[in-house]
């Protein structure tokens, strides 16, 4: 058979938020006119979908709809610090702090309405743009409640800060608490190796990742799918080449990126092991999603053709030459017998 | 970055030659122009100042299309995409659609021209070996004292090395003519570092015509690129196979023949290895598409190489 | 230089305008007609972000000389939702979650539109082929394919138009629900503006002069000829920095522009602000820099040796950072092991390749606040550093994050914002810099390449008894995130396994190569590639299934990590169990069963690509006719 299939797997772990240092984030929330809401925080949307996640969290906590949540721009002169985009930290740090700020804003409104309706604070419910009191006829749109509150001199705002209980590492043995949330995962890759050319096609990847709690499942899949394809690129085709400090790969004609024809079918399995510390139980997935991919692919190639690539990328030439060397070794061994 | 003072679009050959003469030494002739802007960038030519660009893609003669049952004639400005969206062209030149589908992507194929690809003579130019397998001839024209004179030659004589052709400074490639080969099975094998928009390391074009029973090779053409400074027509292999019955033993011997021709500057071992496999794969694929009988092209055989 | 009088129809409107002969159609659309939905991701026809319809044919407008559009009918991304309503395809992209950073999306929507126009019944394989000229770096393409299939089905009546709908959340329970991305409509329509799409009145264009040497002393810089040029408003070098020059992530070892010496090819040396990019480029060519080459060092192991060229005076051994992890006694551990396996692993430098090349604007506002608009991943940190560098109170420095067209860690470093600030202050006009793709690749951070030696000692029962890992990384010319990368690598490198004896050392080394910096999953990707490959080698030797060897060693609830931290709940075995079941894994030691496996070729993988899916479609159509 010219084309050989194989499967391989690999596991991984990762830490969420900044490493071995205290991480922090802050947010301001307001339940606004007309049943809308404002969230202001130093959020850095780089495509991972954090804006939508925050809108969902704010909507969930404040009782409005996500499409009515307005998130302020990330501007050092307009928003409180929420640190950076990286370390798979934003859902954890900013998601949690937005939840806390939103709860404070809601608390102000709920306390106001409890007084107006003369009911227990605990009997007030919110959701989908409405606010009501259990076991009563009181149910009004959120916008009306905001209006009532403002007429009583209360603007339903809230703010919060969220920090991590983490430490640096000991200079000698590395002991310390670098993160307070860890995630675990594993992937299986199925590949086809063309033994005429050495080309590898990754046909399928199954990816199981603990995200603590998935706020937006489609968004989690998007992170997993995107991360896997980036890792695939490093595993099989990308290579920033330098010779005496000068690169020969300064454009996309030479620096080869995966195209639509190079990507596997990706099957995501979302595992939820909630974080016990943050209010939401969320953790993160952006980076862990790409850690097991390359070894899973290399292990799959080994399964297919009995050749282990230990230096990336596994280009067609490298793989074909390794296959031929293996065949030659086997022929020599057979001849010796 | 490209800087130019004037962009001319002549509508006749005479106009084009006049512009070329008037701006000799400070002009560049383009057709599709897909290579010009990428070339004028850091890492390649850098900032480039060309006084005049002469775009010949609108000259009617360069957009000709004639197919009959023996010959195909295409103007040099024919976009590569024609091999994919012009069904009768694809049937007349059976390996070209297989080649075209590997060529860059849909957007670039719509702009890049057959003539431009040939003139660039990039060692990675996939169209050239495929056209050579179809017995392509190029037609060249130049202005000689007010009269347009033409000459023709085989494509594999026209390209002499990497980025080198015998085109004169004041000559234009106007048309490509090749055999119409309906009923042949065609294949195009190529390897690069990924599956799309890829620069090939080795590519092989194969055309096979079988008898009515699908057992004898009436005709076979093979052309390969990436193993030598220019694309090669594998005449010796064709002679070896022509007129013979299909047999794995014969195909295997044929596959060994071009391996000794590998004279690339880099990655020789890899190319030798791939050439042999491609020969078998190309012949098997082309034979199958030409209607090979199931008892000479056994499924296990196909699986072994295809 | 005679202008071209271009007459064409663009998005249904007849236009007649002058254009320069060397303009590309892309420049004309973006700069002259302000149709910024179409992007320049690479300028070389490789990425597809510039795709537009010319007389109904999809083409890459960065490759088209504007004269080729004479008399043509052009449709850009802005034409699809002209009536105000998103097209079926755009709605499908929204519904399927097919947009992430959004920069590739206008071009991708155009390619998808072309695909469905060419074959309204295209199957997934043909769709993939027709999108082969468009690169996406964020999504992995899967949801893009889903979107195109969804649009095809709605158009053909196989799916109802109600397929495009918001989710219904019970009583406001929005957590755990797939709410459609709130930023998707702005991205699929091409309306969202990135920094390179933004203009301000009176704006100047910036270009940067970069070092041609990997290691050289700067003897002198003469900017006088450049400054005297018509149209040049400001030229800066490190001499123009008023405050404490130096930025970074862990160590502020990098000057805004090279100071005293250059340390890598592509390092910024000077910058020019001029009325247009061409004038700025001509001014760069007029700047005279005298260099005295110094011996360079390119291999990290060479850089660690006695007598190697010193890249930064403060680190005479060229070690940016070393992180050690020590648990137990590995020597005794190996002596006690039944099996010891050693192997070396290498990973290469990787380019982030976000589709949006770096770009930014800067201006001094009416209150004297120096304002930078850029796709920075860390505006808080950048503001801190810039205030010190330009000697301004922090309240007089403002960073605004523009929409980020992909980051992955590559836009964390403040490698151009300082120059923008200085030029805005010097010229008192807004300034804009847009990197070319080549400039982005050559001058910005890469993933740390690594060489890892891994030695594992195991008992016959498969338990890991000792692990010794040493990783050496080329950190390149400046520190950037190297310290963080080494730390994360050290903490996570041994994997989520209970191991009584662990010794890990990670070293980030200065060289005269392109700096290495933050890149999604840094440190963990390099080391766990080694560890997870290694475990399979050991599994084969011990006759254990790959899942089994990991279960034998897996951390579980309450496990203690290699940094001696006690964990709470550990979900590793849950993930392994769920994975094994989901993929129908056939158990067995990894002895290269390959094609003999029985768990292959299920329907949750894709078919191998052979190219030519459209031939099959054509054949089917012809057979039907």
Topology of helices and strands:
The complex is a heterotrimer of chains A (337), B (306) and C (625).
Chain A: E1 3-15, E2 24-32, E3 36-41, H1 50-62, E4 69-71, H2 90-117, E5 124-127, E6 130-133, E7 139-141, H3 142-151, E8 157-163, E9 182-194, E10 200-210, H4 217-236, E11 242-243, E12 246-247, E13 265-271, H5 293-305, H6 316-336
Parallel strand pairs in A: 3-4, 10-13
Antiparallel strand pairs in A: 1-9, 2-3, 2-8, 5-6, 6-7, 9-10, 11-12
Helix pairs in contact in A: 1-2, 4-5
Chain B: E1 2-8, H1 13-22, E2 27-30, H2 36-39, E3 48-55, E4 65-67, E5 71-75, H3 82-85, H4 87-92, H5 96-100, H6 106-111, H7 114-120, H8 127-133, E6 137-144, E7 147-154, H9 155-158, E8 159-161, E9 164-165, E10 171-179, E11 185-191, E12 202-210, E13 217-225, E14 232-233, H10 235-241, H11 248-256, H12 268-289, H13 299-305
Parallel strand pairs in B: 1-3, 2-3
Antiparallel strand pairs in B: 4-5, 5-10, 6-7, 6-10, 8-9, 11-12, 12-13, 13-14
Chain C: E1 4-10, E2 13-19, H1 25-32, E3 51-54, E4 57-60, E5 73-75, H2 88-96, H3 105-118, H4 124-130, H5 142-155, H6 184-188, E6 204-210, E7 216-222, H7 224-228, E8 232-236, E9 261-262, E10 268-274, H8 277-285, E11 288-293, H9 300-303, E12 319-327, H10 330-336, E13 339-347, E14 359-364, E15 370-374, H11 379-389, E16 397-401, H12 417-427, E17 431-434, H13 437-443, E18 446-447, E19 450-458, E20 464-476, H14 482-492, E21 502-510, E22 516-517, H15 524-542, H16 546-553, H17 572-582, H18 613-624
Parallel strand pairs in C: 1-5, 6-17, 15-16, 18-22, 20-21
Antiparallel strand pairs in C: 1-2, 3-4, 3-5, 6-10, 7-9, 7-11, 8-10, 12-21, 13-19, 14-15, 14-17, 19-20
Helix pairs in contact in C: 2-5, 14-15
